[in-house]
Amino acid sequence: MITCNNLSKNYGQLKAVDDLSLEIKQGELFGLLGPNGAGKSTLIKLLTGQVKPSSGTAEVMGISISYPVKLREEVGIIPEQENPPSFLTAEEYLRFVAGIRKLGNVTGLVDKWISFFEMESNRRSLCKDLSRGTRQKLMIAQAFLHEPKLAFIDEPLTNLDPISQRKVKDFLIGYVKEGNTIFFCTHTLDIAHEICTRVCIIDKGRIILEKRGNEIKRQNLETLFLKAIQNE
Question: Residue 169's CB: how many other CB atoms inside 10 A?
C-alpha cells in the first residue's frame, strides 16, 4: 500500500525527513510514533502529496506522490488540526465533501456519520460554532465518507472525549479487519499500544525502531520508546 525509497524533506538546514525507506502492506494498522518535531506530520504530508520531497521517491496504492490530485482522490486524510470551513454547517460540509468526491446516496452517507457520532443536535450548526471535539468528529467523518482502502490519520483522538475515543478506536480496528489499511501518526503511546498491528518510532526524520503487534503486547512500549530516543 505504501512504499518509500530514501525519502527526504529539508527545510533549509533542517532535515524533517531524512533518507527514510518504509513499506506498509494492506491490512496493517500502522502506528508512527515520535516526539514533537520528529517528522511524523511531514511524512504524512509527503505521502499525501501536500509537500514535495527534497529527494527520494514514494508510491501510495501504486500512485507516485508526484501525482497529488490523483493520490488524494483515493485516500482518506485526517489532518492534525481540525479545520472544516467555518461558513458551512456540519451537514453542509459533509455534503460538500461527498459532492467533490462524486459519491452517490449522499443523504444516506451523511446521516450515517451524523448518527455514528451522535451529532444530530449539531447538524445545522456552523462549523465555527462547534466545539473542537465536534470539529474533530467531522474531520474523521469526511476522511471515511468514500470508504477509502487507505487512510492517513494525524493525531485523531486528541480532542475527543473518552466515549468518542473508544468508538473511533473500535471503528479503526474493525476497518482494518475488513482489509483496509490505516497509517496512524501519534505521540500517545497508549493508543498505539492498544490498536496498532505494527509501530515504528521516528526521531530526527529517521526510523530508529520497529515493533510488531505481538512484540508491543509483550513489552512496555513506553520503555522501548524512551530507550530508543535516549540512544539517539
Answer: 16
In the Cβ-directed half-sphere of 6, how many Cα atoms lie within 13 Å?
2
Which H or E element spans position 135? Answer: helix 132-144
- Predicted confidence (pLDDT) per residue in 91-102, tens digit: 999 999 999 999
How far, CA to CA in Å, does 91 sit from each of 11, 81, 97, 112? 38, 20, 10, 11
Cell of 97: 465533501
C-alpha cell at 102: 462524486
Give me the residue label for grid cell 530516543: 229
Q: Using CA atoms, how far apart are residues 140 and 32, in angstroms rounded to an integer?
A: 18
What distance in Å separates the CA atoms of residue 89 and residue 60, rounded to the nearest whole number? 32
Q: Cell numbers at residue 103, please?
A: 459519491
Q: 18 falls in which pLDDT band (50, 70, 90)?
A: very high
Alpha carbon distance 79, 13 (integer Å): 25
Domains of the chain: 2-75+149-231 (3.40.50.300), 83-147 (no CATH)
Q: Residue 52, Cα to own-chain centre: how many angstroms?
A: 18
Angle, CA of 95, 83 and 94, to the nearest 5°: 10
* pTM for this predicted structure: 0.90
